[in-house]
Specification:
- The chain is mainly alpha-helical.
- The protein has 56 helices and 14 strands.
- The chain has a five-stranded parallel sheet with strand order 6-7-8-5-9, with helices on both faces. A three-stranded antiparallel sheet has the order 12-14-13. A two-stranded antiparallel sheet has the order 1-2.
- Helix 41 packs antiparallel against helix 42, helix 44 packs antiparallel against helix 45 and helix 51 runs antiparallel to helix 52.
- The longest helix is centred in the last third of the chain and has 21 residues.
Length: about 1200
Amino acid sequence: SAIAGRNFQPRWNDITGVDMLSPSISMNIGEPSFLSNVDSKRGDGDDDGDDDEIVGRYLEVEFPTLPEAGTTLFAVSQSEEDARCYALGVILYELFSHLPSSRSEGQRGGKNIFMNDSSGELAHKHKKSRLLELNYEYQGNATQNPSYAQTRPYSPLTNLGFPSSIYLLVRNLLECGDDNENRPDDAYDSLEIVSKDLHLLLLDPNRFLFSHEPTSENGGVQLLFREHKLYGRENEVSLITDAFCRVSSGKSEALFIGGFSGVGKSKLVNSLNAQVYICEGYVITHKFDQMSKERPLLEVTSMFNDLCLLIKEKRTPQYLLAIYEELMTVFDTDFSVLARLLPNIDAVFPQSNNTNRKIYSENEIDLQSICSTLQRFIGVVSNKSHPVMIFFDDLQWCHDSALTLIETILFDINRSGCLLFIGGYRSNQVGEDDSMFSLIDRLSSSGVPTTKLSLDGLNQQDLNAMVSDAMCTFPRVCEPLSAIVYQKTKGNPFFVIEFLKSIVDGSLLEYSVEQKRWVWDEDGISSMDVTDNVLYLLSSKISGLPETAQLALKVIACFGGKINQSVVGYLSTNPRYSDIQSGLEHVIVEGFVIKVGDSDFKFVHNKIRDVAYSLIPDSEKNQYHYNIGMSLYPMAKETNTDTIIFSIADQINHGIEDSLAQGPKLRLDLAGLNEMAGIRARDRSDYVTARSYFNIASSLLPTDHWKSHYEQSQRLFFLLGNATYSCGDVKNAQDILLAILGDCHCIDDKLPAYFLLVTILNASGENIDAYTTCREVLSQLYETIPHSLEPKQTTQMLTATSKMTKSLSHTDLLEMKEMDKKLDTIFGFYNLMATVALFAKPEFFAFLACRQVHLTMKHGISKWSILGFVQYAAATICSNKTSTDIQGALRVAKVAMSCFKERFHSAEQLANVYFAYFGMVAFYMEPLQSAAEMLRQGFEMGMSTGCRSSALLNGIQHIKLSLIGGEKLYALLDKVDYYLELADLYEHELGKTYLSTFRDTISLLLDKGESTSSKTNSNNAPTGNSTKSATMSETLYFHRAMQAFWLGHAERCQYFVGKALQLSFVTERLSSIMITFIHGLISFQMLKRQDTTKLRTVSKNAITSLKAAALHSQWNFQNKVHLLEAEYFSFNGNHEKANASYAAAITSARSSKFVHEQGLACECAGFHHKKVGDRGIAWDFFNQAKQCYAEWGSQMKVASISRQLETFQITLTSGKVLSC
């Protein structure tokens, strides 16, 4: 070894072989051939002048096979393995000590004097004599106390400067030569064990080979724990590594790790960090504590905010620009919502900090808004090149809103992003009904790969390795101590560390400077009265700290485990906490607290927080918090309090009852403090926290607050109502708003509450009440709304509005003056009322839309005007106006949308505008698939801005256009279920009604509902009759007609089509066109059975109507014209034109990506050719139809076509097969 070389250098070059005791057990020792090119000195090229540094030499020791038993000196009393171990001990001793080998004592004249010793007695005597010579001090004392190895005398090797590990290894080898009755326990049992010890010396010489000198302040040697090594977790490390590899390939997964505190959950997850960094990914972590439920989302959104800076730090300017452009594409005008939620986004992308950006606050960002925004954000910034790992630890303390956030991000209906979510939790602190387990079930059932791990304590072997590393001692030597530690700690790694520290403090485990190794008192350790909880050990240690140190620990514990330096500094100015700074320094030295970043301090483990908090008696905890909060209260009056105001309010609120007896002024002050904290939480989009603060604030107001503090009451209760609604508690929000309306003095003060109340009523399916409330409010604002309208009046208003907007241009809107504030408020209610009228009073929709246009043209533009123009265009389209009128209305809608993008960056209006434009107008100008995608974006933007009702309206139209546009049915079903879950969550009865209807149709098209209907949540069924308006009836009849059509039930389809057409489709123009198309196709089927003038008229009218629609959008309607014409020609026997029209219908449908209608055209063509006797061509068309339906996902139609094919009993030839 290098150390041996410093004191004594053996004559290595003289070693060519050593014969030990008998030629039969000779050992050859030599250098491996590969060392010939290795310099004996350190070959790293460093010229540091240290020529005395010697590299350890490599020796090859060869043990030949021993003769048969009875022919050697060891055959009588020693095993073959003992002989080898002993022989190795002798050779190592001679090499290290440089004592003469004295081979002549056992061999004279080259003849082995033991060869004829059949009894082995002579050999045994010589072996014992040889051992006495080699280790004279050891043999005389080895049997005095063999069970306590630490009392044995030292080998001369330590006197030569060799480390204790070499001494111990050689000594235990020599002990293999003892008689069985005198053999010490530490003697080696096999060369395999020797090999393990030698490997430790070679692989980690600093820990196991070299002796350790006292380094600590008290002159002792400390235990050397491997802070980052995982013991016994190889399988778990492999599992989480595999999960990350899958995520890196373009997927998202979830992993949940349960186990007791201290079992190593965090260390297991942290072992993955290096691989994430190698993959250029991002790691964001958050550890919840007992205070987290008071601030459920603030901490989480802050973590994502930090991710922004992490991206800026790791990526190039070019990459950041590409990310910015993608974010702008995804968020568009909704980017301001992202910037509000993640303020650091402007630091990462300075170009986004547009001074013209406007964020309107009428609609607040709620939980689902946050979820939707962060879902899209993660979808952009995480990818195969840069995956994201999120680690939430101690989930048992997180609020359900944090779990909802993770669920939303993972259950991305677009499956974008590469995210690995890992959640850790204390398995002994969660019940079977914990919401976390419900989340796991939902993720699994939603197709998100989810794994659940359970970590137990280390087994005894792994624990022994941990103890061995800490004591820098061979594992076999530590086994007796490890067995006791395992019994006391059950293998909990954190408990093991604290237990070992405690027995060092109690001098039951000591480092012997003389022996240069750790020694211990087994009896004393075994007798320790230790519970199975680490709190016992920590409590004993912390209780012995100075009062100042305990004060610091208790204060930090009150803040949940982390405290900022500014808080410590401010507290130190209070006489009660004047010594907190020195106490903090003391606990840092003791290892209980560490510094994080530049200004934060936290406990090194949650268990320490538990013990520190337990120092405060339960009966005094609230008062203790309150005193801290009141000491910090003056800070709340400073301007820059964003980072501390929550902590101040939380501390005071623990003991808020104590303030009630301290006078009305203090109560009002604390109400103001909580209102301020609630507003800060609202601005950060954490409405659960905001609601809690607003509730406390309202409870601190005096009983006559509506009289004595009117403005504060009005402001505070509206904040509370808004936050309550944003939390999804619709019923309580409605009650709060009704109370406000009852206590406010005038209509102007009531308007915000009215607006939110109407939104809630409409979303809840109480459309008539919502409409009536709007009319009453507008009446109080001196607006006249008629109780009834004749169709003629509607036509006249549309005509007048058309003339008014005939020359309206993009420039006109951009340069138009803005409307005054009071009229703007009136306009807002018209806007809302028109949306409500779509479902409650569709006959008034055109009137309300025209009224908005008139107000704009007369009094100036408002942020609401854009929606008014688009609603007017929708009303014109739905009123069966001429093609010229429709074209004019479409032009107005386009002008309004361009103005919307340039003049108004209103994120909260975007969802409403998208619903009206892309859901009711754009199908005349853009492909259905494109309009459907924009409606999906409208849904996301609505959720991001808190416009849940508008978001779900976009979702309804998204499903509708996607279904009509031929989207894959299974993907569409997933989206419907997702929207339904949200509608159920937010009690959106209107959404539940419509979406449930769409789900029924999609399920039927898939497989007649056999495998999909069971997934429908019974809670999604609509309640009450308030949603059964004319519009809802139109939708129901439309779906019944569509279902009957695809099932091939002509008479039933005819019946429902008739019902639908009776309602005139006041606000559903696209549905009207599709019903007309279906009606036309069904009429041809009915004509084959009964030729009537009525049916002929229906078919002709259908062709005429679809041609008119195709004038505006060939993409969406031309294939339908071709198919109707093909059926017309087929019915009239014009086969040549029929063939051409079928081919055109198929080609047009394929070009427009309407795979379902391509299949329909092939199916109709098949029936046509079957009718005229071209069975081979018919067969080919039916097969093409089957392929199209399979691609669409309709197993029902695939089965139907398969049955049709089974009816063919022909033999096809290649000449008869026709490809289309």
